[in-house]
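User: Hi! I'm working on a homework problem where we have to compare a predicted structure to a textbook description. Could you give me the structure for the chain below?
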Amino acid sequence: MINLNTYNKKIDIGNKFITNKGVFIIAEIGSNHNQDLDIAFQSIDAAVVAGADAVKFQNINLEKLYHKKDKDLIQLHKQIDLNIDWLFKLKEHCDKKNIIFFSSPTYLEAVDLLVEVGVELFKIASPQANFPQLIKKVSKTGKPAIISSGQSTLEALKNSVCNFLSQGNDKLIILHCNSIYPTPFEKVNLKMIEELKKIFKGHIGFSDHTLGVSAPISAVALGANVIEKHFVLNKNFNSPDAKFSLDPNEFKYMVKCIRETESILISNDRSYLHPVEE
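Assistant: Happy to help. Predicted structure tokens:
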């Protein structure tokens, strides 16, 4: 058992927070910006209207990640790489809209860059969850972080959590996820949320790659208090993630269902019961 000691603790993220009494909802814009800053701004605005607490991008850089680059890889990164010159502009726009901006650093220098930008939260994506130097560097910032478990065995995840905690930072949220895009329902294994809560004694959430909204709503019913879901303005965008992302109306519906599920779970009012008269 690894006691994160965070489940009963509020984790402050800018002017918002993560607790065990509500769900923190992330719109994963990721690469769904179509390499267009205006679309990135519009996506943020739409996520605000849809009810997201935060938007997430990803600091991916072809030159930093690979020594050998074939044509397919180069073409993919033309679609997904984030122009680092956007970061300050995106953060400023999010601040104006009262939504949390954060990103996934996929290489070490990106951590320093995001600290300079002033992010209040980090995301360690599934492929980097077994990158101890990155995990420790993120932890050293003292900022809260989210780590996805999609490409980790349970033992590897425990090692990643221990690496994070070794730097004196316990503000960590673990997301159950499955790195199949999209994920078939029979592969989701949502019961793992309950298992992770027992093992880590901390905040556990769900990063969803299924189609639709059934899985994230079910995850909340099982105790997830952070939900991350891919978000796109238009599913016809030329982005690898667009087809399994939610559009603004779908995302708004998901948020509505999650908030209703929160109410169902939190309420302990039994005043509607009447004693049986004998």
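For your comparison, note the following. The radius of gyration is 19 Å. Confidence is low (pLDDT under 50) at residues 65-69. Good luck with the assignment!
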